[in-house]
Structure formats: C-alpha cells, structure tokens
C-alpha cells in the first residue's frame, strides 16, 4: 500500500450523467479521491478554492462560464490544479480543445459516443486512467498553469551517459518530431519561431484523434511562416512544409525517384498509438538515413524510443526536450535513458538548436 496522499480530483460537467460516469470511473482508481463536483465554471472556481484539488476534469462547453474561462482564471496561480478537458468529438470540439491546450490544460479526453452506458464507461476508463496516472506522476513537481514557463534545470542524470554535443558536418535534410501530452503548447512555442527560410521540411506526429490534428494544423498555419498542414496521401515533401500526421491514421515517408512522398495508411497502432512516432521515425530512417534529425518533445509513454534507435543506427542525431520544460517527461526520458540523445535542450532553445543542425557547423 502506498504512503502517498490520494490524488484529489474535482469533476466539472454540466451533464449530471457525465458527472456520475466520470465520478464512478475515478472512484475505481486506487489512490484517487473524488473531492467534489460542479455543473458550471463559476461553481468550479468556488470548489477549487475550497477543496484544493490536484486535478480537475473540465467540460469544455458549459453555461455561465465555460472551460476556457476557468483556465483563464487559473492562469498564473500557484499550485493550480491540472486540467483534463472533456471534449465532444466534433470539429467545434476539436477547435475548443486545442485552444484549451494552448491555454495550459494538461490533456484531454473525448466524451464517449457509444451505443450503451456500459460501453461508454469502458471507453472512459480506458481513456481517463492513463491521463490520471500521468497527472499523478508529475504531482510532486512544482507546476503553474503554463508548464512551459517552469524554471529551467540541468538535464537529468541517469543510467545513460550525458549527451555530448557533436560537430555537425552535414546539415540535416528533414526534421522528424514526435510529441504527445503538452504538445500543442510546445508546438506553439517552437514552430512560429522558425523562419520562412528554414532549410528543410518537418514531419510531425502529435498524438491526437481525427479532426483534432486538422484543427491543430490550421491553428499553427495561421501562426507560422512555414506552411503547416495535415498530411495527405501522395503529398510531395518540400522545404517550407510542416506536415502533421492525421489523427487515427499512420504516416510514413518514402523515397520515390528523386522525391520524398507522404503515405497515409490505416496500419495498426504501435504502442497503442495511431499516429505513432515510431512508425514515422522508422520510415524517416529508411528514406533519409543520416540526413535526418529526430526530435522528441514532451509526452507520456515511450513512443519514439524505438524509432529514435533506428535513426541513430543510420547516423542521424537525436534531440530531446529537457525535463524541466516538459509537461510530462515520458517520451524524451525513454530516448535519453536509452542513451540515444545527442543533445538535451529546454523548449525555449529548441528553435536555435534545431536550426543549428539544419544549417550544419559546430554546436557550442
């Protein structure tokens, strides 16, 4: 039996049915205590003040004050609870949820749209438990409403040797990025800082369901000098493109004559991920070899570690995000502890570090 205090969760939803379902699922998780519920954002803020929960499951659309309003009120507060958004599986829901993630929400789940209550409970349990466990994993770490503003710390020590910055003799010809929990904030911090003259294409996997990746790509495209889009089957990979794997599909790149072309497939999930970072990285290793650059950003789990190993075996360098600026230090940790990181960088430095590898020359 763990001596850790229970993870306190507040359930916020305007639907009495969903409040009950979410409470029932949470109550079945060992070490979790449901401390209360609220049916709108105004009541949620009052309960947060009174009950001091560690986590809030937060409906996006609510009367009086919606989920966005709650996040804005919590922004900048010390020890603000982590927010897991509960979103409708619609285009509007995707836009609202992506906005909430940019505003500092920890992660999100979809409201089940199944044929029975029992199936809805099962789906919610599958989706919610990993997010709760991820919250628990970082509960002891000082947080703010915007995790990317956390003070920087030295790269972690571990069983792997510390990465050594190396001379970059050949500029990278493609950047492959893998990211999950905390990704929308990280990408908004990183991609708009890359200039229109960025010398190579970027291929990207963000763990998200269908519609959500399209909304993410549209938002990033408005913010970036580069052309950001959701990947299309047969799309030719070109300089100036940022291509995001579609939710619910797998994306790979293949070399065809003198061109590199995107293929979108319905292949099986890998490590329960679809799209999968490993799936993309494996194809990038085959298509580009040592001319690729792998980047693994914030996210729970270890998707990307196998793919990073394949890139590394081809001679491609790997950059991982440091623990201090990750929302969840899972995916980068797996790569780092496997001894695959050539460089560990804080998120604010990522545009500079990636730029150096794509231009070639010595890192200092």
TrEMBL record:
It catalyses: [protein]-L-glutamate 5-O-methyl ester + H2O = L-glutamyl-[protein] + methanol + H(+); L-glutaminyl-[protein] + H2O = L-glutamyl-[protein] + NH4(+). GO terms for molecular function: phosphorelay response regulator activity; protein-glutamate methylesterase activity; protein-glutamine glutaminase activity. The active site is at residues 180, 207, 303. The keyword Iron-sulfur does not apply. Gene3D superfamilies: 3.40.50.2300, Methylesterase CheB, C-terminal domain. Phosphorylated by CheA. Phosphorylation of the N-terminal regulatory domain activates the methylesterase activity. InterPro entries: CheB-like (IPR008248), CheB_C (IPR035909), CheY-like_superfamily (IPR011006), Sig_transdc_resp-reg_Me-estase (IPR000673), Sig_transdc_resp-reg_receiver (IPR001789). The keyword Hydrolase applies. Its EC number is 3.1.1.61, 3.5.1.44. HAMAP family: CheB_chemtxs. Belongs to the CheB family. Involved in chemotaxis. Part of a chemotaxis signal transduction system that modulates chemotaxis in response to various stimuli. Catalyzes the demethylation of specific methylglutamate residues introduced into the chemoreceptors (methyl-accepting chemotaxis proteins or MCP) by CheR. Also mediates the irreversible deamidation of specific glutamine residues to glutamic acid. NCBIfam families: PRK00742.1. This is Protein-glutamate methylesterase/protein-glutamine glutaminase. It comes from Posidoniimonas corsicana.
């Amino acid at each position: 039996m763990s001596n850790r205090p229970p993870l306190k969760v507040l359930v916020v939803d305007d639907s009495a049915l969903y409040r009950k379902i979410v409470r029932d699922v949470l109550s079945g998780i060992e070490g979790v205590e449901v401390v209360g519920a609220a049916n709108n954002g105004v009541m949620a803020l009052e309960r947060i003040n009174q009950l001091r929960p560690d986590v809030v499951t937060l409906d996006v659309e609510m009367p009086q004050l919606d989920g966005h309003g709650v996040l804005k009120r919590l922004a900048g507060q010390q020890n603000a609870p982590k927010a897991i958004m509960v979103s409708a599986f619609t285009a509007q829901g995707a836009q609202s949820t992506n906005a909430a993630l940019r505003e500092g929400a920890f992660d999100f789940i979809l409201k089940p749209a199944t044929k029975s209550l029992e199936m809805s409970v099962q789906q919610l349990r599958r989706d919610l438990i990993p997010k709760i466990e991820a919250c628990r994993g970082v509960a002891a770490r000082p947080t703010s409403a915007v995790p990317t503003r956390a003070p920087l710390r030295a790269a972690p020590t571990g069983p792997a040797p510390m990465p050594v910055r190396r001379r970059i003799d050949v500029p990278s010809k493609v950047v492959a990025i893998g990211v999950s929990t905390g990704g929308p904030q990280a990408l908004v911090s990183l991609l708009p800082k890359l200039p229109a003259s960025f010398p190579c294409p970027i291929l990207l996997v963000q763990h998200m369901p269908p519609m959500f990746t399209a909304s993410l790509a549209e938002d990033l495209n408005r913010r970036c000098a580069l052309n950001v889009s959701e990947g299309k089957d047969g799309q030719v990979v070109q300089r100036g493109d940022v291509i995001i794997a579609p939710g619910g599909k797998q994306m790979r790149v293949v070399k065809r004559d003198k061109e590199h072309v995107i293929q979108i497939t319905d292949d099986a999930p890998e490590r329960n991920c679809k799209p999968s970072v490993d799936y993309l990285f494996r194809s990038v290793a085959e298509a580009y070899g040592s001319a690729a650059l792998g980047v693994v950003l914030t996210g729970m789990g270890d998707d990307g570690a196998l793919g990073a190993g394949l890139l590394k075996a081809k001679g491609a360098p790997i950059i991982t995000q440091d623990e201090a600026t990750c929302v969840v230090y899972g995916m980068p940790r797996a790569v780092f502890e496997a001894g695959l990181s050539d460089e560990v960088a804080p998120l604010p430095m990522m545009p500079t570090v990636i730029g150096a590898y794509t231009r070639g020359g010595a890192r200092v």
